[in-house]
Amino acid sequence: MADAMQLDVGGRTVRLSHPDRVYFPERGFTKLDLARYYIAVGDGVVRALRGRPTTLERYPEGVTGESFFQKRAPKNLPSWIPTGRIAFPSGRYADEICPDETAAVVWAANLGCLTFHPWPVRRDDTEHPDELRIDLDPQPGTDYADAVRTALDLREVLDGLGLRGWPKTSGGRGLHVFVPIAPRWTFPQVRRAAIAIGRELERRAPDRVTTAWWKEERGERIFVDYNQTARDRTVASAYSVRPTPRATVSAPLRWDEVPDARPGDFDLASMPGRFAEVGDVHADMDGEAFVLDAALDLAARDEREHGLGDLPYPPEHPKAAGEPARVQPSRARRPRKA
């Protein structure tokens, strides 16, 4: 195994240590394969990450080894890689890496970063998201085909609210839909809009879709994970490699591809060829900035006419005003002992 090699990435020299280290034993993909992948899709992954504080999901020994999420920028961060300071729900701060060029992505890949988790904000305004992210998460008893059906329903809901979404595979069993928005709303407001959109999907197909936070209430339905819009929750970026045995990637799609595409179609080996052929099918996202007025009006109407207010936050978040109790329903129903 070679100790190290130098890669020329966009005019910068990036050192790659142990390039022959196998990261995906089932496919035989190495660290060098990972670096070459990110070079091949560089324009796309940088478009998804540019200006965004980003958490690194690292697997230094490959997918069969230990892993961890790194929020704070590594101490050996090169001076040419910018950072963005973000605030966590706890009130603490961190300076996170903001990969603005392909060389920065490859530099992180050398640390064993497979998946990039960018915040839905830019570093010059970290209090106002510029993306509404909707995560369609298949629950036990459902599969990717069910997520596809829900995504097509979601497209209609978004159209009715004056919004347009850009779909992508999660790289696993689900689908993500990103809506670029004007950075005018706070995290709680964007989350409120996501809840309203999820509830509208639920109304249209109550037997197939749920917004229930507690797993015991979800059943065999697609969960609209509205809490992915909560502060400090992130979603894998477009083109990120996922820690699966087959090295699948989070693949941007056109809407006309959604019905027939499958997560297994897109991996570390196949995506470079697709990218060379069709380019970044989400390249036009940055030219749009939709408004959430109609979605927030829907949320207000839900609360006014149906008594549907807030939903629980993740457990690590401080209690929010108007938030329902974070008590698992089955436990809440248990009689107290005398």
Polypeptide structure, described:
By secondary structure, the chain is an alpha+beta fold. It has helices at 31-40, 42-49, 102-110, 144-160, 187-204, 271-278, 293-306, 329-332; strands at residues 4-9, 12-17, 22-24, 29-30, 54-58, 68-70, 83-87, 93-97, 113-118, 131-138, 166-169, 175-180, 209-210, 222-224. It has a 5-stranded mixed sheet with strand order 11-12-10-14-13. A 3-stranded antiparallel sheet has the order 6-5-9. Helix 4 packs across helix 5 (187-204). The longest helix is centred in the middle third of the chain and has 18 residues, at 187-204.
What is this entry, summarized?
With 338 residues, the protein is α+β, with helices and mostly antiparallel strands. The chain contains eight helices and 14 strands.
